[in-house]
Amino acid sequence: MKIAIVSMIREPWGGSEELWAAMAAKALQQGHTVAHSTWHFSNVADKEQQLIEKGLLHIPRRGFVPAGTPVLIRLIKKAWYMLLNKISNPFSRLFALQPDLVLYNGTAYSIANEKQLLNLLYKKHIPYCILAHFNNDHSREITNDQAAVIRQSYQNAKKVFFVSRRTLDTAQRQLAMSITNAQIVRNTVNLESLSIVPWPAQANVTQMALVGNLVTIHKAQDLVLEILAGTEWKNRNWHLNIYGQGADEQYLRQLTAFYQLQDRVTFFGKVKDIRRLWADNHILLMPSHMEGMPLAVVEAMICGRACVVTDVGGHTEWIEEGKEGFIAEAASVYSFGKAMERAWQQRHTWQQLGEQAHNKALQLYGNDPAQSFLNAIEQIVKGK
Q1: Which of 146, 207, 279, 287 sits 20 to 30 Å CA-CA off 160?
Q2: 349 and 375 in one domain?
Q3: What is the mean pLDDT of residues 75-84?
Q4: Quick check: 172 pLDDT over 70?
Q5: Are 165 and 217 found together in one domain?
Q6: What backbone phi and psi angles, to 5 degrees, belong to 6?
Q7: Residue 69 reports pLDDT greater than 90
């Protein structure tokens, strides 16, 4: 079986790449051919390189202009890529492999921007699936013309995989269609063990963690800093640990200084050892404006930690108020602040809630999400 994967991510790696990568590793191990088309970057991600060493065919494509490129150079490069793409389709090398199936890995709606990919799929009648990681529950961020493209792409797909039921329901509402070929899948986690991480031995200071890309329009870490700057929080014994990298790191550091929280907030950057992270922290804060189903929440729960989250994406499918964590109705200082306050007043129960979170996460996560995903793809190819 030949599987071709197309990623739309605009950086070498991210959480959206974990599921296809784990599935690809299984497929390569079982003798299948797997190719991956991603934008051309100046460096290859470590996990991509590991797959290449196992036999993955890495096929970068042109067209990506990095953020921060001067405006004039950006315009020239964009124009040049448009010209080249009119001369030859940027996916031609991938399709020359004659794949049995193409898996498009992106947001719920990014396929609307992939007309050259769709043209080849329709022209060559190659079966394809869409793996939809994300949409915005609260805002329909697509035009009517884009919605029409997405509807057609969903209807022609063999399967549209969603990482949470909420993401699927939101897509059906925002596209005004029933997605009858939808299937829910689980993202894989970056954990060597699925056992509970022992509770931090030092409990005199409550350690709270923000884990994720430092992009506030998405993850809303700035809301937590404003909440913690309040008088009631300044008089409490806590420390905030921020893990991750992203475009808003400087802003968040400036905000930390603005609120005079430098002694109570630590930036750790991106960490690889998630279990080590949870050996040092008591609870996860996830004040997101929008989500699919973030790995950080699933990993925290598996490690035995309760979470304070917003009611977006799949959060309420994994967490029930007061059982596995605490849920804010919205990503606002008022709402998330109240959820953090409820959590703080019940901090003596956090270890017990973490155990319940662990059990719930294992129940939903399943035995082997990567193999289950590969099995679904194999069934599609067999029935094409």
Answers
A1: 287
A2: no
A3: 66
A4: yes
A5: no
A6: -115, 120
A7: no
Beta carbons within 8 Å of 211's beta carbon, 6+ residues apart: 243, 244, 277, 284, 286, 296, 299, 300
- How many Å apart are CA 152 and CA 324, to the nearest integer? 39
Question: What pTM does this model have?
Answer: 0.90
Cα radius of gyration rounded to whole Å, the chain: 22
Write down the pLDDT at residue 271: 93
Residue 57 placed within a domain: yes
Do 57 and 126 share a structural domain? yes
- Report whether 292 contacts 139 (CB < 8 A): no
Question: How many domains does the structure of the chain reveal?
Answer: 2
| Nearby residues of 285 by Cβ (< 8 Å), 6 or more positions away | 208, 209, 210, 224, 240, 307, 308, 340
Q: Confirm whether 244 is domain-assigned.
A: yes
Query: Is 348 buried (19+), middle (13-18) or exposed (0-12) by CB count in 10 A?
Result: exposed
Q: From CA 352, how far away is CA 329, in angstroms rounded?
A: 23
Q: Are residues 175 and 234 in the same domain?
A: no
The H or E element that residue 251 is part of is: helix 249-258
232 in a domain, yes or no? yes
Is residue 314 in some structural domain? Answer: yes
* pLDDT confidence of residue 343: 98
Tokens representing residue 54 in the block: 């196992």
In the chain, the amino acid numbered 363 is Q
pLDDT digits (tens, 9 = 90+) for 349-376: 999 999 999 999 999 998 899 999 999 9
pLDDT number for residue 268: 97
Q: What is the pLDDT of residue 21?
A: 96
Residues 138 and 282 in one domain: no
- Helices and strands (H and E) in the chain: how many: 17, 13
CATH number for position 329:
3.40.50.2000
> Which structural domain, as residue segments, surrounds residue 248?
206-365
pLDDT above 90 for 256: yes
Rounded Cα distance between 381 and 310, Å, is 38
- Domain check: are 168 and 54 in the same one? yes
pLDDT digits (tens, 9 = 90+) for 302-320: 999 999 999 999 999 999 9
Same domain? For 147 and 18 the reply is yes
